[in-house]
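Why do we care about 3D structure at all? Because function follows from shape, and shape follows, mostly, from sequence. That is the central idea of this module. The next example makes it concrete: a single protein chain, its amino acid sequence, and then its structure expressed as C-alpha cells.
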Amino acid sequence: MYQWRKFEFFEEKAAGRGGGGGGGGGSSSSAAVPAEIAGRVTCCSGGRGRVAVGCDDGTVGLLDRGFRLSYGFQAHASSVLFLQQLKQKNVLVTVGDDDQSSSQSSAICLKVFDLDKVQEEGSSTTAPFCVQILRVFTDQFPQAKITSFMVLEEAPPILLIAIGLDNGFIYCIKGDIARERITRFKLQVEAAPDGSTSLPITGIGFRVEGQAHQLFAVTPSSVSLFSLHVQPPRRQTLDQIGCQTNAVAMSDRMDLIIGRPEAVYFYEVDGRGPCWAFDGEKKFVGWFRGYLLCIIEDQRTHKGTLNVYDLKNRLIAHSMPVGDVSHFVCEWGYIILIMADKKILCIGEKDMESKLDMLFKKNLYTVAINLVQSQQADPASTAEVLRKYGDHLYGKQEYDEAMSQYIHTIGHLEPSYVIQKFLDAKRIYNLTNYLEKLHDRGLASKDHTTLLLNCYTKLKDVEKLNDFIKDEDGIGEIKFDVETAIRVCRAAGYHEHAMFVAKKAGRHELYLKILLEDLGRYDEALQYISGLEANQAGLTVKEYGKILVEHRPAETVEILLRLCTDVGDPTTRRGSNSMHLLMIPSPMDFVNIFVHSPQYLMEFLENYIKAVKDSPAQTEIHNTLLELYISNDLSFPSMSQENGFESHNITEAKGKQTANGYRSGTREKANVGKEDTKLAKNIVDRRRKGLALLKSAWTSEMEDPLYDVDLALILCNTHAFKDGLLFLYEKLKLYKEVISCYKQAHDHQGLIACCKKLGDSSQGGDPSLWGDLLKYFGELGEDCSTEVKEVLTYIEKEDVVPPIVVLQTLSKNPCLTLSVVKDYIARKLEQESKLIEEDRKSIDKYQEETELMKREIEDLKTNAKVFQLSKCTACTFTLDLPAVHFMCMHSFHLRCLGDNEKECPECAPEYRSVMEAKQKLEQNARDHDLFFRQLRGSKDGFSVIADYFSKGIVSKTTVPPENGR
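And the structure:
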C-alpha cells in the first residue's frame, strides 16, 4: 500500500462556511463545540442539516452549519449514551441514563423526541416534545452495558432498533415506538472460544434488500449475520475475526467494514469480501461518498492520522495528522471530527476542476481519467480529460497512443479538432483509424465518409476498402453516407465497390447509373432491372430508359411489357375488370424514353394493347399510336416538343428536314416521291394500321371513340391521310366535309357513291347532299353528262330536289346540253300534269260539298222543320209528352234525356270528336316547335305549310279588343 500515490483532494474548511466563519484551513480556523454545551461529548449524529451531540450531563445540543448551538435540552437525567437522527422524519432517538433512585428498575431509557414539536420550558430554553419513553431493560431482558446502538427506519412510523450489549446479546425493539405498539426480541452471538464469558458486541449494521432485513454483528473475535425476515432469526458466522469498538462502518453498497491493525476487511452476506492491507491501529473507520475513511493511531507516538482512500483508483485522496479524535460524523458534504478537547475539524472535498488541475500539472492524465470515470462525471467532462491526455501524447509525438485517447472522445469532441492534427500524409494510418471509429458509432458525416474513402484509395488498401464497404460480406447496417461513398468510389475508379454499396443500400438508380454510364454493361443492367419489384423497376426504367432503348431496344421493350402487363407472373395476372390494373405502371409513363426510337415505341404499344384490352390509358395509347401510324416519317412531334427535344435534332438523326416539327404538305409530297420502295411500303402498312385503329376504337356500338377525335382530325389533315379523314367526317356526321374531300380529289364516282350512302334519309342520311352534288357539277365547267344523268336518276327517284332548282343549277355549266335533262324534264312535266288534274277534281268535289252544306244551313235558318217521329229514339216506346225534338230529327222522352236536355245523345259523340279535332288543331297552331320539326322533317316543306293553311290554322289572326272591350 505504500506505493499508492498521495493527493490533496480534500482540504480543511472554515467553520460555518456558507453560514458564517472565517477563511481557510488550519488549526487556527478550526471551530469548537459551543461553550453552552458544558458536558463531555459522549455521542453524536448527523442528519437533516444539523449535528446532534449528546453529553455526559444528560443534555443534547443541536448544532447548525456554523457549529452554533441552535438549541439544547435535557434529554436524560444523568448522561446520554447513544443518539441517532432519523432521515425520513425529524425525530431524534436517544439512549441514556436517567439515574433512578429505585434500585428495582433499570435507569437506562430509550426516548423518542419529535424535533418539529418544540415545547416551551421557561423564557430562555426550549425542548422538543418527547413522544415516548421506553425502559431498555426488563425482567425478560436483563440489564447489561450497552456497547453499540443503531436505528433502522423501515416504513415510518415503524422503527427497528438494535442495541448491542457487552454480554454478547443484541436487544431488538420493532414497531411504532410512539404508540408503544412494539415487539421485543433478543439475538445471541456465540460465546468466547474458551467458553468462559461472552464477548461484547462492538459493532452492528443493518442491510436491507427489498423485504429482507439482515443485521451484521461484530465482536472482538467474530463477524455474524442475522436474517431478521425469518422467524426465528437465523444466524450465520461470516468470519472468526472481529474488531474493537468504533472500527465498524457500513459502505454505501451496504457492505460491512471492519478495521483491524493489519488491514481493513469488507463483508458481504456470503462472507468476507475484499481486504485492504493498511497498517496501524484503526481508531475509527467510516465511509464518505465512496471513500474509505480511517483514523490510524501510531503505536509509538500515539498520534492519529486521517487517511481518505480512493479504493477504485488505488490512491490516497487525503492524509493529514489529527489530534485525539473522540467522534466523527458526516454532514453537509463534510467530514466532521470532534476532538477530545471539544475542537471541531471540518474537512471537505475539493471540486472536480481543482482535482483535475492538480493532476494535469503533474501530467498524471491516467489518474485523472480514472478519477472522472470512478466518480461518474458527465461524459463531456470525461471527454475533456481524454482530449487533454491526447494533446499531451501528441505533443510528445506518441501519435498512436494519442489517437487511442482521441477515439474515446468520439461523440463529445468535434471530429475536426482531431482530423486537423492528422492530415499530414505520414499520419494517414492514424486518421484512417479515427474515421473508421466515427463510422462504427454512426457519427460520421458525408465529409468524413469522403475523407475515409480517399484515405483508402490513396493507400490503395483494397482489403480495408472491402472491409469498410462490404462490411463482412454485406451483413449489418450501412454506417456511412451512401451517395458520398458511391461518388468517391466512382471518381477513384472503384466501380465494383460503388455498385456494391448502391445495391446493398437499395439505391437501384445509382447502381444502374454506374452500370450504364461508367461500365456500359447494358445486358447486366437489364437483368438487374428484371430482378427488381415492379414499382422500383418502373422508376429505374423511367430514368435510364433512353440509354437502354438506344443500345438494347428489343430487350427493353420486353421488360416494359412485363412491367405493364404482369405477363411474367401468372399469380398476379388479372381479369379485364380487375382493380389490379390500376396498381401496375401505365405504358404512357415510359413514352418519353422512346423519343429517338419511335419504331420501338410503336412495337411496345401494339403489343401492350394486344395483351390489355381495358387499360385506363387506352385513349392516350391510341393517340400516340395514331401519331406514329399517320406520320410520314414515323415521328410524333408533339411528344418530342413536350420533352424538350428540338425537332431538327430528330430529323438530323434520320437524315430528313422538317419545319417546326411538322412537314409541310408540299415538301411531304416531294419527299414521298423520293423515298425508296421499302420506306413507301412502311408508310402504307402504318397507315393501314392507323385506319384499322380508327375504326376499331370507334365502332358503331360506341357513343364516343377511344381516342381524341380532334387530334386524329389534325393528324389526318396535316399528313393528308384521306381515308382517315373520310372515316372521321362520316362518324361525326360532317357529310359536307366528306363531299369536300371527294371534290378536292376530283373523284366523281366516289362522290356519287358517297351521296348514295350518306344522302339516304331512310338510313339517317342528309338528302341535301344531292343538291350540293348537283351544284358541284353545275359549277364544274367541264362535260360531266354521264355523272349528271346518274345523279338525276337518283334525284327523280327520291324526289329530293325540285325540277326548277335542277334546271337553274345545271344551266350554269356551259358544257352541258339540254339533252342531259330533256327526258328528266319531260317525265317531271307529265307527273306534274297528272297531279294538277287530280287536284282540280278534288277542288270541284269540295266545292259541290261546300255549296250543299251552305244550302242546308240556310234552310235550317229560314224554313220550319216538321218532326214526324212517333217513338222515342232512346227507349223506342210511343212518344208522349213531355218530349224533346232535336234539329237532327231525333226525338226523346224528357225523362230519357236526364240532365242533358241540350244535346242529342245519338249525335253528341260525333260532334265532340269534331270539336276536339278543332281544339287540337288550334293548340298545334300555338306549338311552333312542332311546326318547325314537321317542316324540317318533310321532303316538301311547302306541303306542310299548305296543310296548315288548309285547316285554317295559320290564316287565323286574333284581333285585340279596342279600348279594353
